[in-house]
Amino acid sequence: MNVRRIGLFGGTFDPPHFGHVAALRAAAASGRYDLIEVTVAGDPYVKSLDGGVRDAALRLAMARAAFDDLDLVEVSDREILRDGHSYTIDTVRELLAECDQVDLIVGADLAQQLNGWHKAVELRALARVGVVPRPGATTIVPDGWDSYEIPMDPVDLSSSYVRGLEPTSTNLRLFLPERVIPLYQSARG
């Protein structure tokens, strides 16, 4: 396959859940991408300040378990292999050496925060933004960003919600792909 257009779907994926799966399926069905790279943040600079981010190798294994079978999706460890904090701009620069176009795929809840991202002005010049709708979140992309909406029914689910549940298989089956559950449970102890 000639990869010219890449959709970049990054995150901590702690844990990856059915909302992520739905967003990736909708992005793949949109016809905008030749490949969607799921990039697991090695050291997510915003979340690492709060503490409690699980080991990157475990989050990568969970992402692979959740997404490896999805059309057009490839799970990457590029940010884990990179030293220091994980910044989207660095990943976009790397991908542009391999393809013609990179579009960020973000939830509507994050879209309004784009101007606060590391080197946002450069990032805005290099990448477009595909926005996935989220329940209760208005899609507001700051001025100057080239953006579009990825059509899908919003999924009301977050990783923080899943982390707040008791780690029983019965509960988790409602929110996590089957292959993710044993990995997530082993991390919960």
Summarize it.
The chain has helices spanning 18-29, 45-50, 56-67, 78-81, 88-96, 108-111, 120-126, 159-163, 169-172, 181-188, and strands at residues 5-11, 35-40, 73-76, 101-107, 127-132, 147-149.
Describe the structure in your own words.
There is one protein chain. By secondary structure, the protein is α/β, with parallel strands linked by helices. It has one domain (5-188): Rossmann fold. The protein is 38% helix and 17% strand. Strands 3-2-1-4-5-6 form a 6-stranded parallel β-sheet, with helices on both faces. Helix 1 links the parallel strand 1 and strand 2. Helix 5 runs parallel beside helix 7. The longest helix has 12 residues, at 18-29.
The computed structural class is alpha/beta
**For the record, what is the CATH homologous superfamily label?**
HUPs
Put simply, the count of helices is 10
Largest sheet: 6 strands, parallel
Mean pLDDT: 91
Percent of residues in beta strands: 15-25%
CATH class: Alpha Beta
Overall CATH architecture: 3-Layer(aba) Sandwich
Sheet with most strands: strand arrangement: 3-2-1-4-5-6
CATH fold type: Rossmann fold
**Pattern of helices and strands:** EHEHHEHHEHHEEHHH
N→C terminal distance: 42 Å
Using the CA coordinates, give the radius of gyration. 16 Å
Task: Note poorly predicted spans.
Answer: none
The gross shape turns out to be globular
Total individual domains: 1
* β-strand number: 6
